[in-house]
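Checklist before submission:
- one chain only
- standard amino acids only
- sequence pasted in full

Submission:
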Amino acid sequence: MALLQALGGNDGRSIEALQTEMDTVAVDYLLKRGYVVEMPGEWEKPGEFCDRIGISVRTFQRHVRSKWRPQVDIEEGPNGRINKVRSNKLFDDFMRKHGSRQKTARSGQVSDRNGAASYCRYRQLALSI
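Returned file contents:
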């Protein structure tokens, strides 16, 4: 802040204008080097996040601690349990890409990775014969 005040006294610009200009320069610098700079969304519970993007909670738990995931704000409880997530578009895309494309039971479609849905279809075929 002292640097901004020192710079602000030289040409008469306000501190807020200088800070906005510095933010713009910093964002341009990061974008030119391949970084993605965007504002995160609202805080969500893990279940709400999973319902919104269409992945299972198990998939979320498996990939949220991946070292290759994009930077995202995570609020953990005292035992390390994830209470809230503040995601962005990159994190949403990462979770969709690495997650199963099946909906959770909370969203009304009951299926899992172990083939419960395919077993039900097999049973229906067997009963119809």
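Reviewer check: Residues 15-32 form the longest helix (18 residues).
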